[in-house]
Structures are given as C-alpha cells and as structure tokens.
C-alpha cells in the first residue's frame, strides 16, 4: 500500500500546486485583476476556506468510510476546476467562495487523511509526505513551461486528468483501508478552545505561519515589478518554487532518516526562525537574495509540517490531534489569506514592498517569542 499512498500524495500536491501557486498569476495575468483586486478575491476565498475546511475535516473525522468521503470530495474538486477554467473578470468574486471552500481545503484534508492511514499502516508520515513535495516541485516546474507555451487552460486540463487518476487509484487500490472505524469519544469541537496550549498555538500559527503564507499572493507581482518582464518573471517564479519544493522533498528524507526522534518544539522554533529569515531576504528587493531566500521554504515547511504533528502528539491527547491540526492548518492557509493580503496590499501601497515584507518579518518574530516562552516542552501527559 505504501506505493499507492506515495503516488496519491504525489498527485494531490501536484494538483494543489496548480490550484494555488498559479492562482494569483492566473487572476492577475489571465483574468486581468490588479494586485488590490487579487487581494480582495483571495481574501473572500480564504474566508470560505476558513469556514469549510474545519467543516469538511469534522465530516471526514466522523466518516466511517473515509475512502468514499475522499472520492466524493475529489469529484467536487474536479467540478470546481472546470469552473476555474471558464472564469472571467465579472465572476471572480462570485467564484471565490467555491475556490476557497472546495479547492483551498485540498492539501489540509488530504494531509490528515494520509496521516491517519500512515498510523494505521505503521508508516512514518514524513516518509509518505515527501512525495507530495516532489510532486509539487515537478508539477510547478512543468506548469511554468506549459503556461508560457500553451496557456492556463491546458494546465487546468492536466489538473483534471490528475484528479481522475487519484480517484481511480483510491477506488481500485485502497480497498484494504476503506473502512476506518469512528473514534468513540465525547470530545466536542468547542472543547478544543478550552485547552490553553491550543489557544497559544493558534496565536503562534496565525502570527507566524499565517503572516508568512499570507505573503504568497504578492510573490509573482513582486518579481514582475523588479524584473520588468512578465515572461522572465514567470520563469523565475516557477523555477524558484519548483526548486524550493525539491529541497522540501530532500528535507523530508533527512527528517525521516535522521531527525525522527528530535525535540519537536526545538524543530518548530527552527522552522519559524527560517521563515522569518526568508521574509527578511525578500525585503531586500534583490532578485538573487529573493530566490535564495525562497529556497529556505523547503527546509522550513518540511520541519514545520513533520514536527507540528509530532508536537501535537506530544502535548495533546490522541482524540483531539486531528481536529487541532485541521484548525491550525486552516489558520496558516485560509485564515492567513483572509486577513493578510488586504493588510499587506495596504502596507505595500504606503511603504512599498520593503515595508510589506519587513512587517511580515516582525510578526513572525513575535510568534517565535510567544512559542519559545509560553508553550510547553514536549512531554507526553
């Protein structure tokens, strides 16, 4: 089963790379929205990710047949991608809730799905998740070439083919793992917010990873502004992102082989500090430093994702781990994109890109301080 878990993870994050990495330039270059309009559309979509990802995660956790749930969800993703293909400027605001609710939740839900299957099959999560990184890297790199030669429509058709391939693999090859019994416990969603550590983690993730992820919307526009040529900027953008995810893939391998038993809090602290360093390098406005800084994402994200799961297991009881991860995941993606693009575009309009990125650096460092001082060391209760 390991090869099928790896293959579906590869395809899932390949599709996710198309839907997220190229969503901002698609709105800007193909649909014709300016940076301010893009930030509004992204914020609305993120609001619906913020609403629907916890709902979908809750439905998923309560579902006895989780493979069936994922198949129906992927069919919804398929339909939403078709909507993305026929989108025009007049309907971007109306489509944003569909994008946020259906497409923005893809990675978060699938990560919880694969993590549960890994536990059930006694695989290390990082050993499977690394294939998501390499899928992201390869598809991003290929996508940049496809966009320049054939346009965005062909890219979206490829995404549709990949979704159908994923559905087929799960339908025909995940038979042993279709039935997963519901956990019988009295835990309610509202109980999550009675846990002091979860409240602190929510603050840390929103200020740290949230502000970090919330800057993604500006990257392609930033490169165009610096380079002055859309095609060259797109080539730098796709190459930079694909290479950084290749580094992410290699980082997952290193974590699996050498760092599995490392202190989860220390590793998360290192991840947040690396995130701050990347944003600081972006603030320089130097293309070389920006691209080098972007590669730090690969190291940071593999550390963050692998040890967030481990840290949650270290400080929380088992029945609330999946829900906790879903909440933290949506805060670092949907929550960040709901709040931060509007704030950052406002700052950029007044202080320029330097002011925007330096503000992000300050927020991440605040999260580092809170995490270091107030959250516990990993000791299983």
TrEMBL record:
InterPro entries: MFS_assoc_dom, MFS_trans_sf. Gene3D superfamilies: MFS general substrate transporter like domains. SUPFAM superfamilies: MFS general substrate transporter. Keywords: Cell inner membrane, Cell membrane, Membrane, Transmembrane, Transmembrane helix, Transport. It is found in: Cell inner membrane. The chain crosses the membrane at residues 7-26, 38-57, 69-87, 93-110, 131-148, 154-174, 198-224, 236-256, 268-292, 298-313, 325-347, 353-375. It is a multi-pass membrane protein. It comes from the Bacteria. Residues 5-339 form the Major facilitator superfamily associated domain. This is MFS transporter. It comes from Clostridium gallinarum.
């Amino acid at each position: 089963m390991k090869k099928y878990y790896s293959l579906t993870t590869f395809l899932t994050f390949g599709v996710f790379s198309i839907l997220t990495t190229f969503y901002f330039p698609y709105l800007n270059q193909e649909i014709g929205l300016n940076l301010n309009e893009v930030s509004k559309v992204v914020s609305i979509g993120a609001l619906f990710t913020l609403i629907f990802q916890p709902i979908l995660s809750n439905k998923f956790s309560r579902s006895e047949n989780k493979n069936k749930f994922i198949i129906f969800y992927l069919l919804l993703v398929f339909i939403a991608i078709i909507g993305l293909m026929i989108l025009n400027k007049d309907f971007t605001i109306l489509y944003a809730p569909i994008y946020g609710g259906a497409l923005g939740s893809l990675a978060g839900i699938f990560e919880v799905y694969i993590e549960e299957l890994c536990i059930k099959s006694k695989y290390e999560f990082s050993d499977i998740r690394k294939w998501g990184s390499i899928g992201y890297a390869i598809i991003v790199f290929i996508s940049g070439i496809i966009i320049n030669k054939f346009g965005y429509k062909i890219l979206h058709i490829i995404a549709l083919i990949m979704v159908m391939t994923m559905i087929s693999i799960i339908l025909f090859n995940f038979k042993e793992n279709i039935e997963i019994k519901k956990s019988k416990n009295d835990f309610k969603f509202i109980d999550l917010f009675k846990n002091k550590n979860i409240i602190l983690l929510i603050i840390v993730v929103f200020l740290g990873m949230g502000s970090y992820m919330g800057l993604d919307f500006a990257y392609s526009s930033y490169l165009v502004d610096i380079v002055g040529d859309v095609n060259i900027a797109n080539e730098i953008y796709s190459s930079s992102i694909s290479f950084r995810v290749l580094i992410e893939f290699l980082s997952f391998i290193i974590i699996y082989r050498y760092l599995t038993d490392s202190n989860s809090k220390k590793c998360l602290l290192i991840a947040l500090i690396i995130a701050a360093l990347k944003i600081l390098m972006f603030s320089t406005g130097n293309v070389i430093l920006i691209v080098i800084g972007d590669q730090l994402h690969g190291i940071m994200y593999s550390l963050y994702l692998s040890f967030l799961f481990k840290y949650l297991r270290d400080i929380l009881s088992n029945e609330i781990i999946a829900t906790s991860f879903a909440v933290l995941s949506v805060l670092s993606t949907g929550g960040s994109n709901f709040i931060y693009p509007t704030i950052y575009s406002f700052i950029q309009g007044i202080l320029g890109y330097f002011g925007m990125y330096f503000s992000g650096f300050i927020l991440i460092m605040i999260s580092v301080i809170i995490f270091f001082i107030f959250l516990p060391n990993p000791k299983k209760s």
